[in-house]
Amino acid sequence: MNFFNNSLKERKLLKILGSFDLNKLSSKEINYFKNKKILITGVSGIIGLNLLFFFNTIVEKKKISLKIDGTFNISLFDFVKNYFRKKKFIKFKKIDLAKNKLNNHKSYDLIFHCAGYGQPAKFLKFSSSTYKLNSIAIMNLNRNLKKNGKFIFMSTTEIYSGNNRLCNEKSVGYTTPSHPRSAYIDSKKFGESYLINNDRNFLIYRICLTYGPGAKPNDERILNLLLLRSINNKQIDIYGGMSQVRSNLFIDDAINLIIKSTSRHNREIFNVSNHQMTTIGEMVQIISQISGKKIKRHKNTLKGSPKIIKISNKKILKATNYKISTNLKEGLTKTYEWYSHLIR
User: Fold this and answer.
1) Residue 270 main-chain phi, psi, to 5 deg
2) Which end of the chain is more exposed for a tag (fewer CB within 10 A), N or C?
3) Which strand (E) or helix (H) includes residue 27?
4) Is 54 domain-assigned?
5) Residue, of 70 and 126, whose pLDDT is higher
6) Are 301 and 250 in contact (CB under 8 A)?
7) Three-state DSSP string of 197-249
8) pLDDT confidence tier of residue 6, bands split at 50, 70 and 90
9) Does a structural domain hold residue 298?
10) pLDDT of residue 277
11) Helix/strand/coil (H/E/C) assignment for every residue in 281-300
């Protein structure tokens, strides 16, 4: 199905992705990226795509000079490729980093390693690639890093799985290799360990439930599924318990935290999360209000799905002097708008 044969639809989607607010960043933080050569792997994912549009925004609005290479494996929105086709500072490459290396002659000041499967259904299905993207791919990409370059790794707060306390960056998880999500959890741990022990300059971001514009129509994470059902169906079907707790972080806040800390810090691990907790029941009630659709409950749960995730984001908020500003209703409304234009 071609979602992007309507130019008006494309313009609306581009406007949503391109509406990044630079007022929450200082000139020093923005200028840090001046003349940098940057690689974003997994540029088709929500974090990679929004990083791409952030850098495009500072080029257009702040006249910052930089160069970006973006890699993707399975698919990148056609309207995104078409939009950037004439922009000389951005180049895309389709490559499976679990199987292939980048050109050894290319070197970068910053590598944002966003490639991987963030959706539980995907990393459970493609476990072999999940292992490789968080291990062999990192080792290979290090060869493309300049001597004083910085490697930025998108890890996950799922490495805390099994720990029911409030988890900060010094906390550990309590899972074994037999855990249903071991491919994801343990390969992320390996990626972190490799960078800590082998790289002079690195940042590790343990991402927790980031959502917003840029998500794909086949994203099977619970928040996105609920939004898609509210658009596509006559009712919002929900499977499993309504009391499960989540701390979803809107993508704009996530990008701000990543950009601010990347420009300021080195050799650090940060939780990128929201301190405001909500239940799936509260979440679906808001989606019901936004869409005008009723809720229908069913019994079912995804294998290995975590019941409670308590993540502390105090370290990154203090390190960046940042205040999360997007509440859940505002974020869900913006994501609903994105999906409405994307699939209709």
Assistant:
1) -130, 135
2) N
3) helix 27-31
4) yes
5) 70
6) no
7) HHCCCEEEEEECCEECCCCCCCCCCHHHHHHHHHHHCCEEEEECCCCCEECCE
8) low
9) no
10) 86
11) HHHHHHHHHHHCCEEEEECC
pLDDT at 319 over 60: yes
Q: What tokens were used for 178?
A: 């037999």
344 domain-assigned: no
- Tell whether 257 is covered by a domain: yes
Which residue would you say has higher pLDDT here, 6 or 328?
A: 328
Range of the domain at 86: 7-212+250-275+308-326
For the purposes of burial, counting CB atoms within 10 Å of the CB of 298, is it exposed (0-12), middle (13-18) or buried (19 or more)? exposed
Closest CA to 150 of 262, 30, 313: 262
Residue 283 CA to residue 247 CA, distance in Å, equals 10
**Which residue is listed with tokens 């999940």?**
130
Cα(8)–Cα(24) distance, rounded to whole angstroms?
A: 30
| Amino acid 131: pLDDT | 95
- What mean pLDDT do residues 319-326 have? 95
Query: What's the CATH code of the domain at 104?
Result: 3.40.50.720
What is the sign of the dihedral through the CA atoms of 122, 55, 250 and 194?
positive
The number of folded domains in the chain is 1
Asked if residue 251 lies in contact with residue 212, where contact means CB atoms within 8 angstroms, the answer is yes
